[in-house]
Structures are given as structure tokens and as C-alpha cells.
Design goal:
The protein has 338 residues and is an alpha+beta fold. Helix content is 22%, strand content 15%. The protein folds into two domains: 64 residues, no CATH class; 196 residues, Alpha-Beta Complex (Phosphoenolpyruvate Carboxykinase, domain 3). A five-stranded antiparallel β-sheet has the order 3-4-11-7-5, sandwiched between helices. A four-stranded mixed β-sheet has the order 6-10-9-8, with no helix packed on it. Strands 1-2 form a two-stranded antiparallel ribbon.
Length: 338
């Protein structure tokens, strides 16, 4: 049998007492124990075999009461590393930002390996309740991400992409809960996708760093309350796929729908989180639509037949939420499409 031996009924593994029911080697070891015996000896206790891929055995690792990074200090409660080693990792991973406006350290999200904007939820709620927006530093990862997408999705057939002047994070009260609930309930493609949406801005957001109360300033109204399906058609009369909320993957298309104020000289568009679910692909206008066909969650218009650009149409405002306001300057302040 090539080195294998018949196992008498009831024979147990020498190391773990498991009853052996298949031919084994002459040492009467089960497969797991045979593998463990081939592992190096634990470098700490010098008795047991080490865990696969480690220098120590499971027993020594579980009972060790020192930081497994420096082997000197007591580890933080519930962790294997001490505070000194943990902070050293943070300083190497990302630079520590300025403190939260309350004076405390900002919260470090270890899953995302980044510092958040505030020390916790309480300060975040206080800030957004007072100002409605948070101006992002140019080195902030969310600024870099939104700015990069704005530039990469600008169609150069419309000329060079304008430089981004500023980016503000927005957080409409309660809209994130509705968005997450809607997205998680989708049965297909329950993912977040990012699009652009051109809007009208009538205030000097760059100077005030806070949302205004002007009813005609769509940027500020949507930033406070999120998108509202009931207001579709208020500013733009033509609705290609009926009464829905429209978004585009190209920032240059949304530029045509932005409108600024001559007193301030800049434009603004939203960078939007969407949960389109299962998309129904369409190539032609259908202005009398009120919803996608059964089994679909949204309409995705593809360029090529009588559409010049791709666009997404959502029929519920729960499926979208503004994420950032992108401020830029180009072509004066007047809207190019109506």
C-alpha cells in the first residue's frame, strides 16, 4: 500500500484521540496532527508546533500578555498591540490632521485607514446643523476623489476641463438613512454609483461657507433636503424619460445645466451617490414614461441613436443623495440648456 497501513477498528490518533477510520502512516496520526508535526517548533515554548505561517504555537500566542509588535509593553484592551505601536502605525499610514473644532482629536477609522472630519457623531451633527456644508481641504481624500472624477469625466470635445475652485461635502438631514435603506432593499445591483447633476447657485458659498435660505438657490435647497421628485420640471421643462431625476456620468454634460450668479462669477454641480439597481437600457426619448418597466429600478439612456450623452433617470428620490458640491468657473454664469 505504498507506506500506508491498515487501521484496526477503534484505533485513535496518538496526539488528539480522534478515531481513525482510514489507512494512515505507521505513527497512527490523523491528517491534521500529521501536518502539525511537520511544522517548525514554537520559538517561545520550544515544545509545541507553531501555527502555520507563524513562529509561535496557538497556546503561547493566546496567553501572551505583551504587545506582539514590540514585545515590551502591555497591549491595549482587546488588541494585540500597545498604544505606542498603534500610534506609530497611524503616523506612518496617514498624517495626523488638525483637531476637531471642539478641541478633541478627530476620529481615526482603522477600516478605511483615514481620519474622519470630526471627533464623533455629536460634533458632526452640530456642524452640519449650523452650516450645512463642510469645505474640504485640497489634500482631503474626498476632495481628491471628486476632483479627479470631475476632470476624468469631462468630455474634451467641449474644450478643456475647468479647474476646480472648491469642494464642499453636504449631508442632508435624514437622507442618508433613506438612501441606505432603499439601496439595501434592492434585489439586484445593490451598489452605490456616482454621477453628476447640474444646478443653479445664487449665493456666495465660497465666502459664507454655509448654506443660504434663498428659495431660488437650488444648490443650497437640495443640500439641505436632498432631491425631491415632486419638483421635477421646475427649472428644466424637457424630461427625456418622463418625470424623473436625471444624472449623468459626464461632468461636461451637467455643465450645460448649471447656472451661476453674475455677482459671484462661478458655477456649481453636485457629485451624487445613486443606487440605480437594475437598469433598463433605452436609446430613444420616451417623455410620457412614469416608471421603468416591471423588473427594473431605473432607466439608463445610452448615447448613439437620438441621445448625445449617457444619462441615468431615477423615479424615486430615495435612490439618490448629494455627496459633494463642486465649485468651478467656465463660460460665464448662464445656462446653456433649458
Amino acid at each position: 500500500m505504498g507506506g500506508l497501513f491498515s487501521t484496526p477498528q477503534g484505533t485513535k490518533c496518538k496526539d488528539c484521540d480522534v478515531v481513525l477510520d482510514v489507512p494512515v502512516n505507521k505513527d497512527n496520526l490523523c491528517t491534521n496532527c500529521l501536518q502539525n508535526r511537520s511544522l517548525p517548533i514554537c520559538t517561545k515554548c520550544k515544545v509545541n508546533n507553531s501555527n502555520p505561517g507563524f513562529n509561535w504555537c496557538q497556546s503561547c500566542y493566546a496567553s501572551y500578555d505583551k504587545c506582539t509588535k514590540c514585545y515590551k509593553n502591555k497591549p491595549n484592551k482587546g488588541f494585540k498591540w500597545c498604544e505606542t505601536c498603534f500610534q506609530a502605525k497611524l503616523s506612518n499610514a496617514v498624517s495626523r490632521p488638525e483637531k476637531c473644532f471642539c478641541g478633541k482629536d478627530k476620529f481615526f477609522n482603522s477600516d478605511q485607514n483615514r481620519w474622519l472630519d470630526f471627533c464623533g457623531n455629536a460634533c458632526a451633527e452640530r456642524h452640519y446643523a449650523a452650516f450645512g456644508v463642510l469645505k474640504l481641504d485640497e489634500n482631503h481624500p474626498d476632495f481628491v476623489s471628486a476632483c479627479t472624477q470631475f476632470k476624468n469625466n469631462w468630455n474634451l470635445n467641449k474644450g478643456a476641463c475647468p479647474p476646480v475652485t472648491a469642494i464642499f461635502r453636504v449631508q442632508p438631514r435624514g437622507a442618508d438613512v433613506m438612501f441606505d435603506s432603499y439601496k439595501n432593499a434592492l434585489t439586484e445591483n445593490a451598489n452605490t454609483e456616482y454621477y453628476f447633476h447640474g444646478c443653479k447657485i445664487k449665493c456666495d458659498l465660497l465666502k459664507s461657507n454655509s448654506l443660504c435660505n434663498l428659495p431660488e438657490c437650488t444648490i443650497c435647497q437640495v443640500s439641505k433636503q436632498s432631491f425631491d421628485i415632486k419638483k421635477v420640471g421646475t427649472n428644466v421643462k424637457f424630461t427625456r424619460f418622463g418625470k424623473g431625476l436625471y444624472f449623468a456620468p459626464e461632468s461636461s454634460k451637467c455643465h450645460d445645466y448649471t447656472l451661476g450668479d453674475a455677482s459671484y462669477g462661478y458655477r456649481a454641480m453636485f457629485y451624487v451617490k445613486c443606487a440605480p439597481g437594475k437598469k433598463q437600457i433605452e436609446y430613444k426619448d420616451d417623455i410620457n414614461r412614469v416608471s421603468p418597466d416591471a423588473g427594473y429600478n431605473s432607466i439608463y439612456g445610452k448615447a448613439g441613436v437620438n441621445l448625445n450623452y449617457d444619462e441615468l433617470c431615477l423615479y424615486t428620490d430615495k435612490a439618490c443623495i448629494p455627496d459633494c458640491i463642486i465649485i468651478y468657473s467656465r463660460d460665464g454664469v448662464n445656462r446653456r440648456c433649458f
